[in-house]
């Protein structure tokens, strides 16, 4: 009497093993269960169902092997493959169909090992592997190609892993096509002084900087950087705010005196010798004598004008190629003083390195930082003066700004030469590796400025780009 053996289908759960950034999954995973093999051969006639070949996982279907004897030996699958343990994944397992998953042998069965997330791939239109063995377009925004417009940013959609872009917010600085600021709709535009936000070089909302509108000095007072930003021409305080004209202004209307002299705000003070009266103009070629009178300059240079020696200047103080203020004179900035030091709004000699912003004091005079006017290398802390811009070259340890770089191009924290207008502030002209100077940079001629306006700041400031 023949005894029919009972077929046994062994089912193995999904294997999920994480190692070295990879995920291992049995091939039955897609059908709901792990791969299984084995069975008991039919003891009956040849050709009847023998031992099971390879069954699908739980929820799948099994393919019974075809028996080749009554002895119960294992059969072969309907595909003709021998039912043997997984030894060489390359020959024993089916291909995964993606470079983000590799067929492997795991505990004698076929499984897959998923590549680590962000591994590069090229199949199925993707560029990086996700965590599940799929080649997708992106996982992070940095996986996406850089947008052509600087007013757009990359976005990687979380649900689809596809690249997209979003508009930068209104007011972000840009340089595309001659623009200076993003309009919030993805475009870089040149107009920024009427968009209702503080952007570009504005010191407050739609005022100051390159805007024709000056910032107000009445409550609430608006922010400023230099006197020229303000309606009143007075920028002071901490933080810097436009200040209303002093009450003494009504009675301080004579030549060479003002209520806005630095350090003497609110009192009627005399201008130092050699300074032009910017409000109550002296006659042609006349200049303030330090006592409140306008006198003939006798062909001598005024404060802030070019010189080569002390006798070129009305007040006898020539430093770094410009007529400067003498010790004891009211001042607004270090560069205005022949000593290179403006302390508490008064020009004073330095007694040591710690007295100087540059950390270098030489015979009572501070050496200058990068971007400050110079006539020779000895004027600069870096011992290097640009022969083209006549400003000190940075030492390399100073903060990099477009104003302080002698090329007016700052890249990755270092002064650099420009190769195109896109490297320059406000996307202005790049000529011979240097940009036109932005607002706030020291200057001697109009054509060196992006604004084409090089003018003296009110009240004891050297000429700067407006």
Written description of the protein model:
This protein is mainly beta and 466 residues long. It has four domains: 16-114, no CATH class; 142-200, no CATH class; 246-363, no CATH class; 368-466, no CATH class. It is 1% helix and 20% strand. It contains one helix and 31 strands. It has one helix spanning 89-92; strands spanning 16-19, 22-26, 36-37, 49-55, 62-66, 101-106, 109-114, 128-129, 135-136, 152-156, 163-167, 181-182, 188-189, 235-236, 241-242, 257-258, 269-270, 286-288, 294-296, 318-319, 322-323, 342-343, 346-347, 361-362, 365-366, 410-411, 414-415, 430-431, 434-435, 454-456, 463-465. The strands form 14 sheets. It has a four-stranded antiparallel sheet. Strands 3-4-5 form a three-stranded antiparallel sheet, with no helix packed on it. A hairpin with a 2-residue loop joins strand 24 (361-362) and strand 25 (365-366). The longest helix is centred in the first third of the chain and has 4 residues, at 89-92. The protein is elongated. Mean pLDDT is 78; it is low at 1-23 and 25-82.
Would you spell out the secondary-structure blueprint of this structure?
Layout lengths: L15 E4 L2 E5 L9 E2 L11 E7 L6 E5 L22 H4 L8 E6 L2 E6 L13 E2 L5 E2 L15 E5 L6 E5 L13 E2 L5 E2 L45 E2 L4 E2 L14 E2 L10 E2 L15 E3 L5 E3 L21 E2 L2 E2 L18 E2 L2 E2 L13 E2 L2 E2 L43 E2 L2 E2 L14 E2 L2 E2 L18 E3 L6 E3 L1
Antiparallel strand pairs: 1-2, 2-7, 3-4, 4-5, 6-7, 8-9, 10-11, 12-13, 14-15, 16-17, 18-19, 20-21, 22-23, 24-25, 26-27, 28-29, 30-31
């Amino acid at each position: 009497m023949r005894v029919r053996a009972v077929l046994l289908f062994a089912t193995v759960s999904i294997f999920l093993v994480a190692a070295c950034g990879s995920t291992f999954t049995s091939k039955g995973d897609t059908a709901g269960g792990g791969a299984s093999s084995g069975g008991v051969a039919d003891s009956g006639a040849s050709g009847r169902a023998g031992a099971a070949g390879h069954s699908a996982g739980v929820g799948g279907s099994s393919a019974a092997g075809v028996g080749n004897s009554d002895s119960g030996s294992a059969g072969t699958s309907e595909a003709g493959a021998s039912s043997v343990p997984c030894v060489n994944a390359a020959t024993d397992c089916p291909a995964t169909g993606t470079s983000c998953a590799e067929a492997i042998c795991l505990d004698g069965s076929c499984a897959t090992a998923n590549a680590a997330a962000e591994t590069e791939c090229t199949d199925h239109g993707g560029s990086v592997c996700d965590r599940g063995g799929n080649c997708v377009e992106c996982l992070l925004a940095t996986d996406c190609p850089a947008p052509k417009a600087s007013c757009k940013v990359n976005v990687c959609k979380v649900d689809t892993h596809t690249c997209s872009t979003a508009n930068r917010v209104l007011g972000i600085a840009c340089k595309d096509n001659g623009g200076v600021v993003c309009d919030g709709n993805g475009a870089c535009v040149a107009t920024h002084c009427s968009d209702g936000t503080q952007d570009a070089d504005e010191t407050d909302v739609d005022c100051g900087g390159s805007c024709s509108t000056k910032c107000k000095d009445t409550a609430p007072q608006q922010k400023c950087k230099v006197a020229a930003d303000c309606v009143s021409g007075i920028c002071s305080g901490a933080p810097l705010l436009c200040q209303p004209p002093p009450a003494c202004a009504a009675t301080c209307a004579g030549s060479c005196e003002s209520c806005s002299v630095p350090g003497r705000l609110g009192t009627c003070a005399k201008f130092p010798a050699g300074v032009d009266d910017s409000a109550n103009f002296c006659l042609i070629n006349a200049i303030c004598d330090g006592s409140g009178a306008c006198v003939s300059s006798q062909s001598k240079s005024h404060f802030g004008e070019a010189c080569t020696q002390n006798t070129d200047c009305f007040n006898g103080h020539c430093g770094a190629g410009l007529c400067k203020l003498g010790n004891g004179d009211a001042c607004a900035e270090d560069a205005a003083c022949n000593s290179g030091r403006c302390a508490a709004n008064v020009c004073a000699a330095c007694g040591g390195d710690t007295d100087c912003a540059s950390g270098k004091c030489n015979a009572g005079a501070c050496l200058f930082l990068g971007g400050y006017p110079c006539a020779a290398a000895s004027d600069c802390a870096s011992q290097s003066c640009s022969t083209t811009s006549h400003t000190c070259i940075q030492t390399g340890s100073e903060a990099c700004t477009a104003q302080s770089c002698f090329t007016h191009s700052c890249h990755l924290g270092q002064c650099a030469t420009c190769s195109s207008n896109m490297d320059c502030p406000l996307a202005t002209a790049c000529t011979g590796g240097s940009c036109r100077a932005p607002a706030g940079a020291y200057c001697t001629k109009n054509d060196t400025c992006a604004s084409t306006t090089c003018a003296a700041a009110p009240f004891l400031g050297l000429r700067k780009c407006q």
